[in-house]
Structures are given as structure tokens and as C-alpha cells.
Design brief:
- The chain is of the alpha/beta class and 349 residues long.
- It folds into two domains: 192 residues, Quinone Oxidoreductase, Chain A, domain 1 (Alpha-Beta Complex), CATH 3.90.180; 128 residues, Rossmann fold, CATH 3.40.50.
- The chain is built from eleven helices and 19 strands.
- The strands form five sheets. Strands 3, 4, 5, 10, 11, 18 and 19 form a seven-stranded mixed sheet that branches.
- The protein is globular.
- Bound molecules: NADP nicotinamide-adenine-dinucleotide phosphate and zinc ion (ZN).
- The site of NADP nicotinamide-adenine-dinucleotide phosphate has 29 residues, from helix 1, helix 4 and helix 5.
Length: 349
């Protein structure tokens, strides 16, 4: 049965949010219908809808940090049953057959993958995201939320969690390694928690010292503020890994200077502008400059299990749907500790 669900949408560029009704598709054989309880607000939602990454189609319902409960399963579903706690992140489908899909890196599916919003499903239907009360998705793109994590604190893990977990693991954050997390925001605060749980010595690296106490509560050994430019000299050659989560441009060369020889700087923050990197700043001490995009479904499940095992959820502020426009402005102003999560029961209330 087609589901009608209340949702928040921006119907025209530069407009505020409105409450709309979305049609979710009839369940296919491998589909589940999820009652969405909470949806996190990721800075990527804002970059996309404000067209900072290029023109998009309206109307759009963003949201790719989805946590809820299975409400219905189709006959071919084997992974889930009604009542299970599940999450959906940035993708809702992929071909399942290309090399990347077979390697569990569905985000790089060559077909390509269907993203949770601002993307077309393979049947041509427009994908609409999680700022809504229900979503229909193939069971392959849902992850199990372990009992140890509250649903509201789990929602941001589906994007911010996996986006920080995957590169931290890939670049060897762990015992005996010093990790700097640049930008202590939605992604960054989880980067600090996860890197600390992996056993690394972690530094929060912010613009100011405002978040210094929080940083240490999140698991950092110390907090650095880059508005004091002397930190770049004082901490030159300090880090094995730097995870840059900043949503704006940064002087890459200065941050590369903070790495030890063989160190790696991984960018996950995605502003639209280019940056300049003199080859000498990498070659001089065999450093790596890298990027990372979310993570595959199996790794997202692994991250959720890791977070449950280490008692990690996002640090959140739950908001009502009516406060969405203000919350977005506050994210842009850096005024959130550390992720806004929409209580979807308040949509249309
Ligand atoms: P966020 O909550 O707004 O956090 C960004 C942080 O960057 C802020 O808390 C702030 O940290 C710092 N910052 C903001 N403006 C800055 C400026 N002008 N100069 C220096 N630092 C600044 O955003 P988010 O949701 O964590 O997302 C961060 C970025 O990652 C976005 O660009 C987003 O699109 C991207 N992203 C990428 C992926 C991926 O797969 N690669 C996935 C999700 C998101 P301090 O206050 O500590 O300085
Ligand atoms: Zn995101």
C-alpha cells in the first residue's frame, strides 16, 4: 500500500521549510517501511538545499541521518521484523553487482548509488529524505541500531558517525597514535569520541577555546584554538592523522605542517572552493592528503556496533519541526552542541 507521510520540504529555492505530504512507494519484495522517530541535521543538508554544491531540483525533503522502527516488511525481507530499531544513512540503493558494491563500498557504485535525497531511484521516482515520518527502503540499506544506543542519539551516527569512523579506521587511529580532529561540530565531536574509543590520543582543533571543556569531555586529551596562529608553530610535526571536518575553506598548507613525517590529513568537510597545496608540503616529509566519503553499509553496521560497545551516541539537541529554519541558521553560525535532531512526531503537529 502506498504510504502518505507528513514531511518537511523546501519547495522553492531560498524559501523556508513547509509541511508537505510525501508518497512513499508500495513495498517491493525486499522493502521495509520504517516509522522514522528522529532525523539528524547534517551540514550537507544545508549545503545541498542552499545550492552551495550546485543547482538542485525542488521540492526537496532532506535528511540522511534517520533512526526509527520497522513498521512493515515485504514477503522477501529476511534481515528485519516489525518493531526492530533501524537506521538509514546517505544511500537507499545501489546496483549490488559492480566491483565497489561487491567490496561493500556501495557509495561508489558505478551505476551510481541512489542517495537518500537529491537523487533519482532506479525506477525514476525522486528520492526524498528523512525529515519525514516514514520511509520505504530496501532492507539492504537499513542498519540495525543496537539496544545500547538511544534512537535520538543514534540518528547522527548514520552519516556523521560513519563519515568519521571510516577514515579514522583506514588511517590507523588507535593506540600510540596522535589524532587531531579539526572542527568540533556534528562530525567533529563524533570524530573525537570515536578516535578516543579506538585508543588514540586525540586533540580537538577549533577556531577558539570555547569548546575546550567539551572537547575533553568528549575524550580529547587537549584542545587547540587556531585563532592563535602560534599553534601552527608550537604543534608543528605533532599528529599522525588529522581529520578535517570543517564546512569552510582552510589553509591546507598550515594544517599539513601539523603532521609528523608519513602523517595523513583526511578531508571530510566539503566546502565548494578549491584549495592550493604546494607539492613540497607533502613530498618534503612523505605526507598524505586524502579525502573520504561516508562508508559502505557493512562498515556502517560495524560502526554502530562499535559505538554501542563503547557507549557512544551523538551529543544532541532535540528540536520540534517548527524550529527547523532557526536550527539551520544556528548550524551555519556554529551555534549547536553538537547535532540538532528533529523529533519527527512534531512534523505537521
Ligand atoms: P557542522 O556541525 O557545522 O561543523 C562544522 C565545524 O567546522 C563547526 O562546528 C566549526 O568547528 C568548524 N567551522 C565552521 N565554519 C568554519 C570556518 N569558517 N572556519 C573554520 N572552521 C569552521 O557541520 P557537519 O555537519 O559536521 O559537517 C561538516 C562538513 O562535512 C560539511 O562540509 C559537510 O557537508 C561535510 N560532510 C561530508 C561528508 C563526507 O562523506 N565526506 C559527510 C557528511 C558531512 P569549531 O567551532 O570547532 O571551529
Ligand atoms: Zn551528512
Amino acid at each position: 500500500m502506498t504510504t502518505q507521510t507528513p514531511a518537511l520540504a523546501v519547495t522553492k529555492a531560498d524559501n523556508p521549510f513547509e509541511t508537505v505530504t510525501l508518497q512513499r512507494r508500495d513495498l517491493r519484495d525486499d522493502d521495509i517501511r520504517i516509522d522514522i522517530k528522529f532525523a539528524g541535521i547534517c551540514h550537507s543538508d544545508i549545503h545541498t538545499v542552499r545550492q552551495e554544491w550546485g543547482e538542485i531540483q525542488f521540492p526537496i525533503t532532506p535528511g540522511h541521518e534517520i533512526a526509527g522502527v520497522v513498521a512493515e516488511t515485504a514477503s522477501g525481507v529476511t534481515k528485519f521484523k516489525v518493531g526492530d530499531r533501524v537506521g538509514v544513512g546517505c544511500m537507499v540503493d545501489s546496483c549490488g553487482e559492480c566491483e565497489m558494491c561487491k567490496n561493500g563500498q556501495e557509495q561508489f557504485c558505478t551505476k551510481p548509488a541512489v542517495f537518500t535525497y537529491n537523487s533519482d531511484n532506479y525506477d525514476g521516482e525522486r528520492a526524498q529524505g528523512g525529515y519525514s515520518q516514514q520511509i520505504v527502503v530496501t532492507e539492504r540499506f537499513a542498519c540495525r541500531i543496537p539496544d545500547g544506543i538511544e534512537l535520538d542519539e543514534a540518528a547522527p551516527l548514520l552519516c556523521a558517525g560513519i563519515t568519521t569512523y571510516a577514515p579514522l579506521k583506514r588511517w590507523g587511529a588507535g593506540q600510540g597514535r596522535r589524532v587531531g580532529v579539526v572542527g568540533v561540530g556534528g562530525l567533529g565531536h563524533l570524530g573525537v569520541k570515536i578516535a578516543a574509543a579506538m585508543g588514540a590520543e586525540v586533540y580537538g582543533i577549533s577556531r577558539t577555546m570555547d569548546k575546550a571543556q567539551d572537547s575533553e569531555k568528549l575524550g580529547a586529551t587537549a584542545h587547540l584554538a587556531t585563532n592563535d596562529e602560534s599553534v601552527f608553530e608550537k604543534y608543528a610535526g605533532t599528529f599522525d592523522v588529522i581529520l578535517n571536518t570543517v564546512s569552510a575553506d582552510l589553509p591546507m598548507t598550515s594544517y599539513l605542517g601539523l603532521l609528523k613525517p608519513f602523517g595523513a590529513l583526511v578531508n571530510v568537510g566539503l566546502p565548494n572552493d578549491d584549495y592550493e597545496v604546494p607539492p613540497r608540503s607533502l613530498i618534503g616529509q612523505s605526507k598524505s592528503l586524502s579525502g573520504s566519503m561516508i562508508g559502505g553499509i557493512a562498515e556502517t553496521q560495524e560502526m554502530l556496533d562499535f559505538c554501542a560497545e563503547h557507549g557512544i551516541g551523538a551529543t544532541i539537541e532535540v528540536i520540534d519541526a517548527k524550529d527547523i529554519d532557526t536550527a539551520w541558521d544556528k548550524v551555519v553560525a556554529g551555534d549547536v552542541r553538537y547535532r540538532y535532531v528533529i523529533d519527527t512526531a512534531t512534523i505537521g503537529a
